[in-house]
Design a protein that fits this description.
Layout: H1 2-50, E1 63-73, E2 90-102, E3 107-118, E4 121-125, E5 128-132, E6 137-140, E7 157-160, E8 163-166, E9 171-177, H2 184-192, E10 211-220, E11 224-233, E12 247-249, E13 257-260, H3 271-293
Parallel strand pairs: 5-12, 8-13
Antiparallel strand pairs: 1-4, 1-11, 2-3, 2-10, 3-6, 4-5, 7-8, 9-10, 11-12, 11-13
């Protein structure tokens, strides 16, 4: 009589041990991601504190610079219509595509792609203007980099390696069903953008509830924007190297460029992320240790 009970009891113990081990691993992964996010936010806050906002005319040499001004296209007609919202006179469009998979095993949203499309533009204040030149960036379902920790750094925008874009809001503007084609403007954009595709990422059978959402926010001529990044002398102009028109700001892996419609007055210091990472890390280690010692 006791044998079946002992067998079932042993099986339950093994199941609970495996669940506890996987739970500990997941908590450690969440801890690492939270620590990374908190650390990046703390670095940004420190950079903001160390770099007071300055007038464009006061930029006299290469270095980390923080300015706020109005968006002005580099050339009068050098703007574009954004691919998702259809905003006109844009100099920058930050976008993200998410897919909902309703499968036999799970129902979850996953990031399919994100990126930034931009043309050169100036940030102009009362004292002068400074050039911003950002290369187009794509992290997509054909680049093998869909999941990157950077995507969690700006909840109201897009964060990529070397570039953070923050807006007042970052909303869904187009939603399609699983087998439904997006509007022609969006379809043309996806088809012409290297690194993303219209084919869903799902590798198993899905039901009709699966869908795709397209997020976007833009910078247009006349918008107010704050910029924090490394300014370097331009090489495409001739003249005094100390004149503000002679400097340019770009984003790179070595020097992140921060764009925000906010004035950087209230930047998160990452304390919440660091604390959450510490607590989840301790909990994960505790679970794994308990399983090992059982």
């Amino acid at each position: 009589m006791l044998s079946p009970i002992l067998i079932i009891g042993g099986w339950l113990v093994d199941v609970l041990r495996e669940l506890a081990m996987w739970g500990g691993v997941l908590l450690l992964l969440a801890s690492s991601l939270s620590f990374y996010t908190g650390w990046k936010q703390r670095r940004k806050a420190a950079l903001v504190t160390e770099t007071p906002r300055t007038a464009v005319a006061d930029v006299e040499s290469a270095g980390v610079t923080r300015i706020r001004g109005t968006v002005v296209p580099k050339f009068e007609r050098d703007t574009f219509t954004s691919p998702v919202k259809g905003d006109r006179e844009c100099v920058l469009a930050a976008w993200e595509i998410e897919e909902l998979y309703d499968t036999s095993k799970t129902r979850s949203w996953e990031s399919a792609a994100s990126g930034v499309h931009s043309v050169p533009f100036y940030i102009q204040d009362e004292s002068g203007k400074l050039l911003i030149d950002i290369d187009d960036r794509v992290v997509g379902n054909e680049t093998d980099e869909v999941f990157t920790p950077e995507r969690f750094l700006e909840p109201d925008g897009v964060s990529l390696e070397g570039l953070w874009c923050e807006f007042d809001s970052f909303d869904v503007h187009v939603e399609t069903g699983y087998e439904e084609s997006p509007p022609p403007r969006v379809a043309d954009f996806v088809d012409s953008t290297q690194g993303i595709r219209l084919d869903p990422m799902a590798t198993e059978w899905v039901v009709d509830a699966s869908k795709r959402q397209y997020y976007e926010q833009t910078l247009q001529q006349g918008d107010k924007v704050s910029v924090l990044g490394y300014a370097t002398p331009r090489h495409d102009v001739v003249g005094s190297a100390t004149h503000p028109d002679r400097f340019i700001m770009t984003g790179s892996e070595e020097s992140t460029l921060h764009l925000s419609t906010h004035p950087f007055d209230d930047v998160s210091r990452g304390g919440g992320g660091l604390l959450f990472g510490l607590l989840t890390g301790l909990a994960g280690l505790g679970l794994i240790t308990a399983v090992v010692l059982m």
